Amino acid sequence: MPLTTMEPNPVWSEGAYEDTVDVLAEHRDELVYKVWGGDWCKDCRSQLPDFGAALDAAEVPEENVVHHETEKEDDGSKTGPGVEEYGIEYIPTVVVERDGEEIARFVEDADVPIAVSLAEEIQAALD
């Protein structure tokens, strides 16, 4: 089930993130973005719409973006598809894979937006 929070932010400015969009677009067909989040999560609601807009601007195919709806247990732990396999503790988490191998990861909070953080990691991994 797609995460509502991944719907692109309609006021996101592609021009402000041109370099980021260029990196995402350059590798749009070879990378898979696995997104863990929850529509109930305030961090997801504030961060994922801009990430969705960046992926949209880069024309990343829908089949290359996998949504993993995550729930929070009473003890704060997360449950859902792939949570244990990928060691997901905080959301949003985005794992970027190339040929099934992880090349980049964003976890919950950073000094820069999700797309910027991942574009930097992708560029470092693939250059």
TrEMBL record:
Give coiled-coil spans as residue ranges: none
Superkingdom as given in the UniProt entry: Archaea
Biased composition regions of type Basic and acidic residues, renumbered to the chain: 64-77
InterPro entries assigned to the protein according to its UniProt record, in alphabetical order = Thioredoxin-like_sf (IPR036249), Thioredoxin_domain (IPR013766)
Region of interest (Disordered), residue spans: 62-84
Pinpoint the Thioredoxin domain residues. 1-127
Protein name listed in UniProt:
Thioredoxin domain-containing protein
> Can you name the source organism?
Halomicrobium mukohataei (strain ATCC 700874 / DSM 12286 / JCM 9738 / NCIMB 13541) (Haloarcula mukohataei)
